[in-house]
């Protein structure tokens, strides 16, 4: 068996094609060029329906980002900052650890480490020169722990170790996601207060990074940077069978053949097409390097705005380097 | 209309499924873990059948390269060196310009520039210190001219300009190709004496880089590093319809529907699946960065062995840096 | 013998310590945080005095750039744009080729290629879609030809070849320079209309890149990114002997010793200190990677502003990628 | 006041110019092209004399590495492997955590992270597939924790956290060092069993990374990649005053001036030469990027040989990627 992967709550919801989902509430807001959707999974029923844990999933969709519109980029950063502030219940003294998940050697998975490299990091300044860096600066630290394949250590274990030592009040993770839709690549941002579940993201983690496992709230920011090739192949099958069904009379025996084509049959087909890589293939626009670069600078901007409201742009820039 | 792209002569030939192709001769050789196929397009008839100009297309296929077997890598480099020597009719005094085609900012297109960065470059040494660097060293120069989108200049124009100035006897180009088959990615190398035609390679060039346009022979080395997403979608359709045809009786009206599904219909379907990127989407293994790195070091090794038979490994290494 | 290298006209002039220099006129302008000095070498006498060819050398000095002040960065970009426009006599139809000199693999020498990667390149757009990209866009192309050591070809030869093919009206080169003063690193920009002489820049070119050699005017933009270690050692000697001279009576025989210490003696000393690298050593701040990144984005911004006054910021950004 | 920095025990010893040092034993071994020196600091007296803690400091010096001799490189890797095995008392079951110290964005400080990227990492394999990866493989994990300036967290804190979680038996750190001598850059390797003291290395750490602080033995491998500019300036003064002293009669009053020039005076001079960067300036060969690349591959090879004696070269390569 196989499943079409999506890490996005808005996409899990789309599978319901507009029908109401039990245990799930949805709220939409439209700004200029930006759509903000808040999916709340309210209870166990909602968890089952959506395949995701109880919690809030807010999605920013800004298709215009594909065109490098600087005004829109700044606008998205501000919307992101507002959402972070709200979902994180930030107070003045909340100490934050920003975590860039993913593998910096693999372009579409390098989103997290890239964002981290542009976060205004202040924890050491406040610690070593508290008079100079006072209350207008929040204590922020940041790490990119790498991935299991290059460290031999589960990311969750590294984080648990670091959290136990430096005791932040909140973690914000940034991760590259897989989407079902090409149009979302580098134009959609999901913010949730549920942390990271095993198996999500491009990196296939085995342990969860959540309030339960780490003892402090975890805000997870994710951006789709790839579509699984399995998704593309599967969608092609879906579209084609739909097309064929339209042309076939319902009483035709062939109608039954199409209708009853099992998941297993579909998967065998996909496997044949995608051999020898199958589950390891991603579909990306050729210019993925650039797309990841742009969206990661928007996200680090948004996080900096959320975490350091007391700093001017100039001060931020000076601290950045 | 659309066409499934392949830059490989062996794949163009596969479309004939074993049937003889008029105007084309094929020869295969099997070494341990390496298959060498020589496709000769002999005349206009062959050109039409294959969609490629008259000339020799030699392909090295070594699926084992995917497993990082150092012995196999060295073996492939040597086979490549032998093929280059043969196809290029190298004499002692042949001055060679090695050209890395492609965009160094786009991982799967960076193959050419990466190879060039490991070529033993000697032209300046021979020119400025002819006594010290004598006949045992061949004059080799190397450039990575960039791509139209980042220079505003057709690669062929830059090369024409450089060739007119420095007057080499032979050009060897290295380019990333698109394949029809995932199994070929970074494991197949094509060497041809026909140069580069417009539209081939990942970079979509508009002018040819050939003996005709440059005035000197052009050996083109290419390695598939991506499969077009259109190919994956198309293959899925092909496999599915084939599967369905098997289950359908020939007299069934549905059989006709499937048989007669037009290219246009297929393409509309593919377009729907791949919107908004369609022709700009590539399918790659996640670890493409690594695959490109490995195969490019094999190719630069092969070229260095072919061009500098008079140098020991040690001397090569010292000249390399 | 040895000489302390400077590629900057303002530094050559400083050696005269305020005295008037025959054949040289100097003009200074002070803006907020920016000093602009225009050194005009008027005739052969001036050439000899300054060790540089007849022409205009305009220097922008903005020490504040070291502090990442975004407003100052934008201001410097605008001042640079104005100077380029003036010195280049740009008309609407002037077609420009921007050339990034230097080696992209060597951080302090990578300035030129980095600038080029952010130039708005339009030549191909105007050529292939003249109706769509009209008179409000200037034809600009851009290349980074590499350095002799990695291509085996003199940069001047590559440029001559390209210029002969694509026939631009003007070349703008960008190059990393050596300075005598650490305070100038990444905070000083020199613009001249004399092109590039052999031996200047970090890359040690042997052929000139000038109007005389290429047939079209060459504007050279340079930024110091390193100080030769020889300069540091030499300065230490100078300062020390000066200090000692102050403490020594003029009639003392030792005074004579110090006064008459020959260049040769000084150089032997320096050689001893800097063995085994001597002429290949550079002094840089640890954070040179960052400094080069910042100043190169200022310069590409300045060039884009100068060359494309008809484009809005938004249009520039869209064309950039 | 100031001090000339050296992180190398062999250099601290050189200051004694051959005299015996109380509390310190020295042993030298000469192989072909490689000199191995073992400095043992035996007691408090030795600590004071050398400015380094009690322990073993073994230095591999191979000046020939500058010439990219592949045989010598392999030989050095093997010598390094033997030293690691001996100094670490490795048994079959020793679980090792390899730590790449330093900032990957700053070329000469990127040595540690570069080495880590080529370590054969196996901990996760042994944990998740113990039958498949058995006793012939040692459990090795690896991280590059970043530096205080980019994480806001002391490296020692991150390591303490990780060690508490994954409980390795031994840590091996790799770090870029400052040397007093240019000839050592990328050709000298120091291995010690004392861990890392505050202030050592290029990165200026404040907390120690030692058996005392982490609870498990720490082997520190270091390679000089820069010389402080202060050292160069200071050496120039030393050489010059020595030269002048030779030319001055002892009864001359000037002799006294030179003899008595205080550290403070020297430092003021140096400060004047190196303003505005002073303590932040490094001297490197232009080709430092390349030097760091070469030496880091030698070190990762040496570590892999030491830690995984049960693996063939082929198996190592396959595990590496």
TrEMBL record, chains A, B, C, D:
Belongs to the peptidase A25 family. One of its GO terms (molecular function) is metalloendopeptidase activity. Residues 1-7 form a propeptide. Its EC number is 3.4.24.78. Initiates the rapid degradation of small, acid-soluble proteins during spore germination. Homotetramer. Keywords: Hydrolase, Protease, Zymogen. It catalyses: Endopeptidase action with P4 Glu or Asp, P1 preferably Glu > Asp, P1' hydrophobic and P2' Ala. Autoproteolytically processed. The inactive tetrameric zymogen termed p46 autoprocesses to a smaller form termed p41, which is active only during spore germination. This is Germination protease. SUPFAM superfamilies: HybD-like (SSF53163). It comes from Thermoanaerobacter siderophilus SR4. The keyword Hydrolase applies. InterPro entries: Pept_HybD-like_dom_sf, Peptidase_A25. Pfam families: Peptidase_A25. Gene3D superfamilies: HybD-like (3.40.50.1450). The keyword Lipid metabolism does not apply. GO terms for biological process: proteolysis; spore germination. HAMAP family: Germination_prot.
